[in-house]
Amino acid sequence: MRFDVECAMCMDENKENKVTFEVSNKSLYRVKCSEGHEYDHVLSVELFEMLYEVGIYALIDGYTREAVSSFATALERFHQYCFKFLSKYHSVPSAVLDGIWETMNRSSEQQAGAFHSLYMVTFKEEPPKIKGSKKQLRNDVIHYGKIPSQEQATNYAKFVFEYIRDILDKFSKYENFNVIRMSIMYDYFTSQQEFSTSSSRITMMGISLYGVVTEKDFNKSLDTMIQSNSRWIYT
After folding, report:
1. Whether 88 contacts 180, CB under 8 Å
2. Mean pLDDT calculated for residue range 43-69
3. What is the residue extent of each domain of the chain?
4. What is the pLDDT of residue 21?
5. If DSSP codes are grouped into helix, strand and coil, which group holds residue 37?
6. 184 touches 85 (CB < 8 A)
7. DSSP reduced 3-state for 135
8. Alpha helix (H) ranges present in 108-217?
């Protein structure tokens, strides 16, 4: 996958010039434009947001199996995000948090269970439930090669969208929501060995799960994206 960003140094010179680079799981990218400007660019985005965005592109292009796979993985990484968020809310040190997560790093069921337990302790209620039909679709796609219909994939996308939206809305009611959110992002940045820079210029761009912040209705946000054909990642 590739990503376009306007060269910040060209913009300083009142020029329009885009820089293209490959997107991966890392956060820091060294970029160089056609004018020879070289600097570091930080992509400030959570992994679950990135995966959901990729899923939406696949859905629009008709790749339903790839779409559901991306949405399912986004959901699993969102559970990891929630585990970290609630752990930090309860003042668990990052080193302890990471050590506990390592013991269940390969089991999505254990990860979901850990999140459910923390959610219960924090809010004194059950978290939103994932219906058996959604679990079945995910398993059929991931493990048995099922190619879902466009309707099935769209409904799954809507489910994941609303699941994430509702939980983030609940988290956002806490006064220190942004402090915890930025702490998680900082931990993610600094956990990457390559996240060090000697560049005299650093730029940053962030995205949020499409529509969750600006438009909370899935159908409206998806329609907007289809009509505008607006993408910041492409192949």
Report:
1. yes
2. 89
3. 2-44, 47-196+204-234
4. 78
5. coil
6. yes
7. helix
8. 108-123, 132-144, 150-171, 177-190
Regarding beta strands 28-32 and 18-22, do their DSSP bridges make them parallel or antiparallel, or are they unpaired? unpaired
Kindly report, residue by residue over 211-234, the tens digit of the pLDDT: 444 456 777 767 666 655 555 444
Residue 51 has pLDDT above 60, yes or no: yes
Closest CA to 28 of 184, 178, 179, 191: 191
Q: Which residues of 85-117 are buried (b: 16+ CB within 10 A; e: fewer)?
A: bbbbeeeeebeebeeebeebeeebeebbebbbe
Whether 27 contacts 43, CB under 8 Å: yes
d(C-alpha 91, C-alpha 168), whole Å: 19
Which amino acid is it at 40?
D
- Give the pair of three-digit tokens for residue 213: 């912040």
Amino acid at 92: V
**DSSP codes joined into one string, 167-234:** HHHHHTTSTTHHHHHHHHHHHHHHTSTT-----S-EEEEE--STTTTT---HHHHHHHHHHHT--SEE
Q: For residue 84, give the H/E element and its range.
A: helix 64-89
pLDDT in tens, 81-97: 999 999 999 999 888 98
User: pLDDT (tens digit, 9 = 90+) per residue, 101-124?
Assistant: 889 988 888 999 999 999 999 999
Mean pLDDT of 48-70: 91
| 221 alpha-carbon distance from chain centroid | 17
Higher-confidence position of 213 and 68:
68
